[in-house]
Amino acid sequence: MRKTILRAAPMAAILAVCAALLSMCWPGLRGVSADGATSAVSGTGGVDKTGPAHAAHHANAARPANSAPGPVFDATTLGGPLLLGKGWRVGVSANPAASQPGFDDSKWAVRDAGQSMNDIPDVDDETANTNQNHGSQVHTGYAADSRRRFAWFRLHIRLAPNHGPVALLIEVPVSQGSTLGSGSTEPAENVFANGQRILPGGPHRTDAEHYQDIARIYDLNVPPDQTDLTLAVRTLYVPFGFGAYTSFFASRMLRLGDPQDLQGYLRLWNNRNLFERLPRLVYSALLVVFAFFLLVLYFAQKGHNEYLWLTLHELAMAPIGFIELAGSSGRLDSLWYAALVLQLMLVASYLFFEFLISFLSLRRRWYIQTLRYTAPLLGGVAPTMLLLFRLSENTAVAVVMACVFLGSMFWMLGWLIFMFATLIAATIRRNFEAGLLLIPLVLSLVGSIEPAVTAGMGDVTGRPYHSALTVLAGPIPIHLANIADFTGVLVIVIIIFGRFLRIQRDQEHATSELAAARSVQELMIPHEKVATPGFEIISVYEPANEVGGDFFHVQTMGDGGVLVVIGDVAGKGLKAAMNVSMIMGALRRTADHRPAHLLESLNRVLLGSESYTTCQAAWFAADGELVLANAGHLPPYLNSQEIATPGGLPLGVVPDLKYEEIRLYVHPGDRVLLLSDGVVEARRPSGELFGFERVHSLTSQSAGYIADAAKAFGQEDDITVLTVRRLAHAERAQQPQATVESLSTATAD
Predict the structure, then answer these.
(1) Which pLDDT belongs to residue 653?
(2) 123, 108 in Cβ contact below 8 A?
(3) CB-based burial, 469-500: b 16+ in 10 Å, e otherwise
(4) Is the pTM of this model over 0.70?
(5) CB 384 within 8 A of CB 359
(6) Band of pLDDT at residue 411, cut at 50, 70 and 90
(7) Residue 376: other Cβ atoms inside 10 A
(8) Which residues make beta-bridge pairs with 651?
(9) In the 8-state DSSP scheme, what is residue 141?
(10) Residues near 445 by Cβ (< 8 Å), separated by ≥ 6?
(11) What is the pLDDT of residues 92-128, one digit of tens each?
């Protein structure tokens, strides 16, 4: 059978699955075997004996006493290739003796080779010949042919005496429309010359029925002294529809001539076939270049996975054009041709599905997850196709094959609905990039449905079908499907270029915003050491790559006390820096050193901001008293002990918050450690956090050592560390001293 091979368009994969299923569900059209031939003669003169004794018996039994040769095609003036267009005897028979020159075809209808022919009476000639021979029964000896009926086309030809080499060229049309395959869906033909089966020239000539039909030359090997030639061509009998015998000549052109002269016609056919595939080959080469560009773009702009998915999609589509050329040239088995093209198309469809999800930043809804987790079923299509044809009698394999193909068909149907629904919905939401993607999708769908609907139109009408959606650029046909392919690449290039410019613009904006945020942050962070009589304060600030929201404030009061505030604004960039600037401005204007009142005041300032702020305020009195209030920040450490502070909500979340205070006494030589969450949340590439245990083990170390340890571990956020040590010569407090444990739970009024 002429294999219907799928066009390589990702939007038409569902049609490809249907075409493949129809092709496999029609096993009778897989091709015509050599059974029934008396002898097979290759194009180079080799002879394959397949039963000459039976053939002679068939010929003699089938020849009536008064047989008439009928019309004779005169080729005695053979100077150049002649078109065999008149005088064909057409009949339907299961008798292999119809290939013999002595077979009686006098009662067969005479038809000219045209675009179509009238139907002939549906009579099995084997029965007719048996009756004509007065009960002399003809035994074919070929069980297969006795069950198969063939349409036979016989032509009696007279050659000139001492003629030269004679050959037959059978040209099939190169598709001038955007079809699902190459040429027609006609069953393959067998050629007989004076009863000998002639093998075609060209690639894979011994099993040509397993390959796409191409133009081939048959060397008839007629001896120079033999002037009578009976040419018989048979094909599987299909009474109507696609591949009907009445349209046999509509899809074939037969020429008789010298083999060297016919080679010129064959070269022209090969050129037309190449021109037919040229747009697809250019497209495939373009996809490889485009995939390389996308891969470079993916590495240049990290985090944009849509570039990677699109790269893989283009690489999956690129080989299809070259596979089509190999298949349409008869160099790739039709089954492998169909399996490879179909599998690549299904893989490309899934990759485009992932590209669209990443491109539109779609959430993981149930239908997306369903398509994603059932996609592995698509990978079994080609293996099960190949396995089924090797184990066609195995019921289990057939059942598995049916399940895989039905599952793939439903998947592709869901894919198609998802594609259109998602792109249309995104376009309605004013996503113009999605609207651009709809253009090649619609064009490709129309370009794929058109040949699917009109496939075999020439067989039905008896005239060559020329698609109205095809234009010619000189000798090169440009189909709507080709236009859709190139439009798809152009659209994606426009989208990618637009996104690239937008990303570059956003990155430049982010860079300028980052620079502004750093400038604000540098203004807010103290650079000069503040004089703090009675206390030694050491601060270390390590900014992350992105501008964070860490801040701290150190301020001395007139009574010899020191106010220390540390905090972290949620978020990054300029917004976080602006919140820090508001906090620092409020702190520099305040004259209230009471930590709880200070936090309540900052909370009122930050209400209405888009983020929250953790903060901790500590008042170190000159007499050693320490007053603490906490708004969701990390607890401080006194020497090596964590100070338990009352829980409090971050600033800017809830209005009119009240914060609690705790009081404790700091002895001369004691040290209080305050730090931001950038220390605790430092992370290794493996995901391991620095954690509170490591912080606790380092509480006796200097602020610089702690900051360096967290940074070396894996800094992800700003790191701020402050240590406040009461000096030994500090004024001693007059009130009774209390231990940390006893004072840590005390609260302010």
Answers:
(1) 86
(2) no
(3) bbeeeeebbbbbbbbbbbbbbebbeebbeebe
(4) no
(5) no
(6) very high
(7) 9
(8) 613
(9) S
(10) 11, 12
(11) 988 889 999 989 888 898 888 876 777 776 555 444 4
